[in-house]
Amino acid sequence: MQLHDPCAVSVLRCIDEALKTKKTVSFNDVMAASECKKYSISEIGKALELLRRNGLVKATSRFGCSELLEFTATGMTDAGKEFLKKR
Predict the structure, then answer these.
(1) Alpha-carbon distance 19 to 52, whole Å?
(2) Over the Cα atoms of the chain, what is R_g?
(3) Global confidence as pTM
(4) Which residues pair with 60 in a beta bridge?
(5) Are 59 and 74 spatial neighbours (Cβ–Cβ below 8 Å)?
């Protein structure tokens, strides 16, 4: 998966919107978002970690058996905001 993947862009938009009203956004929050329901749990997990590793969101994550188990976003980075502006 790459940053320009529709799933990654949708997940980033979801995080951005949710952080306008909440202090943190969890993996479950993203999975429950209407625009992310069309993606699998695995796809969302990969997108979340991709966004974190590329510095688009401030977040913590925990893995088990090579799968994302927990994810908590606490903010958007300037790079994340710029990325969304270009979409």
Answers:
(1) 15
(2) 11
(3) 0.91
(4) 72
(5) yes
CB 50 within 8 A of CB 71: no
Distance CA 81, CA 56 (A): 8
Please identify which residue in the block is written with the tokens 């799968």. 67
Give the position of tokens 């927990």.
70
Which residues neighbour 61 within 8 Å (Cβ) at sequence distance 6 or greater? 48, 49, 52, 68, 70, 71, 72
Tens digits of per-residue pLDDT, 27-78?
999 999 999 999 999 999 999 999 999 999 999 988 777 777 788 999 999 9
CA within 13 Å, CB half, 59: 29
